[in-house]
Design a protein that fits this description.
The structure holds 2 protein chains of 2 kinds. Chain A is an all-alpha fold. Helix content of chain A is 67%, strand content 1%. The chains are: A mainly alpha, B alpha+beta. The interface between A and B is large, with 76 and 68 residues.
Chain lengths: 180, 473
C-alpha cells in the first residue's frame, strides 16, 4: 500500500519508471479481471490496453486518493460495461466460449491461460453481470465490499448478497471440477 | 456441493490470465508512449473555449483526442430505476460515454452565439469529426471531415486544407481525463434545483473549475458554467469542408498537386512555428525570473495570436515581475474580459488582485481577491480545484515539468490564502492530518462567516511563482 502511494506520487509527477512499475504490477490482475468479466481474451486485452493508455494520459490530472488497484479495477469494469452495452446493441444473444489462446502466430504475443482458467471463466459467464462483477472484484482485484458498493451504486448488503448468490451458483456449476 | 471457500480459492489461484512477453512489451511501449505524449498538454476548458490548440504531431493527436468518450450506448432505461432524487455523478459519467454528438455553444449578453462547436465521437471513442465557428470579431472557422482539416481564413477569402494528421482542433485537451476527474472528484452541490426554468442537478466539476448543470432525465450536462451543451444530431453537411463562392482553396495535404503557397500563408505558418518556440522560451524565462526575456517572448506571441490567453496571462506575470503592475493589470483584464462570465478564471482574478494591491488600488484588489476565495478554499478539500492556480503560477507545468502533488496544491493554496487574508488557522504541511483537517474546516467556517480580505502592508513575495513552493528549474 505504501508502495502504491509512492507510485501514485511519482506517476503524477510524470515518472516513467512509476508508470512502468504500476503496469508491471497490475497488468495481469487487470487482464484476469477483464477476461473474467468478458469471457473473451481478445476483448479483455483491448480493455486493459485502453485502461492503461488512458491511465498514462491522465497523469496531469490524476488525483485519486483511493487505492491504485481499486482505481484500475474500476476503470476496467467501466470499460467492460461500455463494451457490453455496445455488444448488446448488436446482440445475437449467444454466449461465447473462451478458448485457450491460439489465435496469434507468436505465443508470446498472446494472453496465456490454462484450460481450468478457461473453464472457470466460462462458468463465470453464466452469472448475471452484477454478481460476476462483485465476485471478480472481490477475489481477483481484492476490492472491499464497501468500494464495490460505491461502484455499483447499491448498498453494501446488496453487494454481499450478490457475492453469496454468485458463489453459490459457482459452487454448483463447478462441483467436482475444482480441487477441495 | 463443494465448500464456498474452495470456490474462492479456485478463483484466486486458478483464474489467471497472463500477458505473454511480447504482448507485455508491446502494450508497455504503447502505454509509455501515451504518457510521453500527454506531457505538456494544457488543461483547459477555460482557455480553449476561445483559444485553439494546434496539434501537429499525429501521435499527439491520437492521444489528446482520446478526448471524447467511448461509444457504448447507455440505455437510459438502465438508469431509470434511479429516481432523480437518487442522482449520482456516476450516472452522468456513464451517460457521457454514450454520447455521439456534442454541440457546444457560448453566447454573449445579447444572446448571440460567439462560439459554436460540433464534435462527432467515433465508434472507437475518439473525436471523429469537428466543426468550429466564431463570428466576428474573431471571424474564424474550421471543419474536420475525418480525413482533412479545412481552416477558413475569411479575411483572405481562402480555405487551407491540411491532412488531419498535420492539424487538428479540439474543444478540451483531454475530455477523458476531465470525465475521470468528474467521476472521482465531482461533488453534488444541489439535487433537484433549477436552471433556466428547467429542473437540474448542480454538480461541482473540479477540473473544469465550474459548476455543471445536469438534466435529471438524461443525466447529461446541459451547461458547464455558462457554456451550453446539447447532444442532437447535426445537419448532414456540418462536417463537410465546403469552399464558399469566391474563396480559393489552398491544398497543403501530402500528395496534393504541387504549387506555391501564397506568401501570406507561408508567413502565417512560419509565425505559428515561431509561436511554439517562443512559448517554450518564454516559459523558461519566466520560471528563472528573467522577466524581460519573458516579456519579449510573450509579446511576440500575443502580437501574432491575440487569442492565446495563456500568453496574455504569463505576459502579465512577467510585467508584474518587472514591477510594471499597471501593465500587468491591463493584460489580466484583457483575459477576464475575453473569457467573460462563461469561463470563470479565478487564478486570473487572483493575479490581477495582487497587481491592484501593489498599485494601492485596495478596493479593486479586494473585489478581485474576494471572488477567488470560494474556489481557493474549495481546493483545500478537493485539491484538483486548484490545479489551474498551479498551472498559472508555474509555466513549466505546461512544459511537462514540476507536476504538483495534491499535497503541494493544498500547501500552495494555503500560502496564497495566508497572503491575502493574513490567516492560516494553524495549517502546517508537517502537522498531523487531523490538525490540518481542523484548519481546513476553520477556513470553510471563516468563508461562511463572510471572512474579509486583509492585504499585507509589507512582506510581499517575489512574483510570480514564489507564491507556492519553490522549485528548481
Amino acid at each position: 500500500m505504501l508502495e502504491d502511494e509512492l507510485l501514485k506520487w511519482e506517476f503524477r509527477r510524470g515518472s516513467r519508471e512509476a508508470l512502468a512499475r504500476i503496469y508491471e504490477k497490475y497488468l495481469d490482475s487487470m487482464l484476469t479481471l477483464a477476461a473474467g468479466l468478458l469471457n473473451d481474451v481478445g476483448q479483455a486485452q483491448d480493455v486493459v490496453h485502453d485502461v492503461f493508455v488512458s491511465f498514462a494520459k491522465s497523469a496531469p490530472s490524476f488525483g485519486v486518493r483511493g487505492s491504485l488497484s481499486g482505481y484500475l479495477a474500476t476503470s476496467v469494469v467501466n470499460r467492460v460495461r461500455d463494451r457490453r452495452r455496445r455488444t448488446r446493441r448488436q446482440a445475437d444473444g449467444s454466449t461465447k466460449r473462451i478458448e485457450p489462446a491460439r489465435e496469434p502466430a507468436a505465443p508470446d504475443d498472446a494472453v496465456i491461460f490454462t484450460e481450468q482458467a478457461a473453464r472457470i471463466s466460462q462458468v463465470m459467464a453464466e452469472l448475471p453481470d452484477e454478481q460476476r462483477e462483485v465476485v471478480l472484484l472481490r477475489l481477483t482485484a481484492g476490492m472491499k465490499f464497501r468500494d464495490i458498493a460505491r461502484l455499483q451504486q447499491v448498498s453494501i448488503n446488496t453487494v454481499q448478497g450478490r457475492y453469496r448468490y454468485g458463489l453459490n451458483h459457482l459452487r454448483s456449476m463447478l462441483n467436482g471440477e475444482v480441487d477441495e | 456441493m463443494i465448500p464456498e471457500r474452495t470456490v474462492e480459492k479456485a478463483l484466486r489461484g486458478k483464474l489467471r490470465f497472463t500477458a505473454g512477453s511480447t504482448l507485455r512489451e508491446r502494450l508497455l511501449a504503447e502505454v509509455m508512449n501515451a504518457q510521453q505524449q500527454a506531457k505538456g498538454t494544457e488543461p483547459a476548458l477555460h482557455e480553449s473555449g476561445r483559444k485553439l490548440r494546434i496539434v501537429r504531431n499525429p501521435v499527439v493527436k491520437l492521444t489528446s483526442v482520446a478526448a471524447v468518450i467511448a461509444v457504448a450506448v447507455l440505455s437510459v432505461a438502465l438508469w431509470d430505476r434511479f429516481s432523480s432524487r437518487a442522482y449520482a455523478i456516476e450516472q452522468t459519467v456513464e451517460a457521457l460515454q454514450s454520447v455521439r454528438f456534442l454541440h457546444v455553444t457560448e453566447r454573449d449578453d445579447t444572446g448571440q452565439i460567439t462560439d459554436e462547436r460540433w464534435i462527432e465521437i467515433g465508434e472507437d471513442g475518439y473525436q471523429a469529426r469537428y466543426r468550429q465557428q466564431n463570428p466576428a470579431p474573431r471571424n474564424f472557422a474550421v471543419v474536420e471531415d475525418g480525413e482533412s482539416t479545412g481552416v477558413y481564413y475569411h479575411d483572405r477569402r481562402a480555405v487551407v486544407l491540411y491532412d488531419r494528421s498535420q492539424r487538428q482542433y479540439q474543444w478540451v485537451s483531454s475530455l477523458r481525463a476531465f470525465i475521470e476527474n468528474l467521476r472521482w472528484e465531482g461533488r453534488i452541490l444541489k439535487r433537484n434545483d433549477h436552471y433556466q426554468g428547467r429542473p437540474a442537478h448542480r454538480v461541482w466539476w473540479p477540473a473544469m473549475s465550474a459548476e455543471c448543470l445536469i438534466d435529471p432525465k438524461t443525466k447529461l450536462p446541459v451547461a458547464i458554467g455558462k457554456v451550453q451543451l446539447s447532444y442532437e444530431t447535426p445537419a448532414h453537411e456540418t462536417f463537410e469542408i465546403a469552399i464558399p463562392e469566391g474563396y480559393s482553396a489552398v491544398d497543403r495535404r501530402p500528395g496534393a498537386a504541387a504549387g506555391p503557397a501564397p506568401q501570406w500563408l507561408v508567413e502565417q505558418e512560419a509565425v505559428e512555428e515561431n509561436i511554439d518556440a517562443y512559448f517554450r522560451q518564454g516559459a523558461h524565462a519566466l520560471a528563472r525570473g528573467d522577466y524581460e526575456q519573458a516579456v519579449e517572448n510573450f509579446e511576440y506571441i500575443v502580437r501574432n495570436d491575440e487569442f492565446s490567453n495563456w500568453a496574455w496571462f504569463w505576459l502579465g506575470r512577467a510585467y508584474y515581475g518587472l514591477g510594471r503592475y499597471d501593465r500587468a493589470v491591463e493584460r489580466f483584464t484583457r483575459i477576464l474580459d475575453a473569457l467573460g462570465d462563461a469561463y470563470p478564471c479565478r487564478y486570473c482574478n487572483y493575479a490581477r488582485g495582487l497587481a491592484y494591491a501593489r498599485l494601492g488600488r485596495t478596493e479593486a484588489a479586494e473585489a478581485d481577491l474576494r471572488v477567488c476565495l470560494p474556489a481557493m478554499i474549495h481546493t483545500l478539500t478537493i485539491p484538483s480545484s486548484g490545479w489551474l492556480f498551479e498551472f498559472a503560477d508555474n509555466p513549466m507545468i505546461q512544459q511537462g515539468r514540476d507536476m504538483p502533488t495534491n499535497a503541494e496544491i493544498v500547501t500552495n493554496m494555503i500560502h496564497r490564502l495566508r497572503l491575502i487574508t493574513g490567516q492560516d488557522f494553524g495549517y502546517d504541511p508537517n502537522a498531523t492530518t487531523e490538525k490540518n483537517e481542523a484548519a481546513i474546516a476553520a477556513w470553510e467556517r471563516w468563508l461562511g462567516d463572510d471572512g474579509q480580505i486583509r492585504l499585507p502592508t509589507d512582506g510581499w513575495p517575489a512574483p510570480p511563482h514564489s507564491v507556492g513552493s519553490k522549485r528548481d528549474h
